[in-house]
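Hi support team,

I submitted a single chain yesterday and got back a structure, but I'm not sure I'm reading the token output correctly. Could someone confirm the output below corresponds to the sequence I sent? I've pasted both exactly as they appear in my results page.

Thanks,
R.
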Amino acid sequence: MKINFFSALQKDKIKALLEANEDPKYVYLKDTKPNEMQFEVTYADGVEAGKDPAGYAKKLVQKQPWGAALYMRVLIDGQAFTGGKVG
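Hi R., thanks for writing in. Yes, this is the structure output for that exact sequence:
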């Protein structure tokens, strides 16, 4: 599964933080736009059903001292941003 992480600031820290996470494992793929990075997400148990890698990535960043004040958008690749709740 792929996620797209948008943030205008702290991109290097976000990339390093996500790539250091073990489960789920985030592997940087590319910049899809100037402020958007794409990651491949895999789980140790191999099961993706019922899991929210986009929400988990956002929570990881928000827990950082520098992350609480960031504006960010994290979506599963192909998901449209409508401004509403996911699911």
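A quick pointer for reading it: Residues 11-20 form the longest helix (10 residues). Let us know if anything else looks off.

Best,
Support desk
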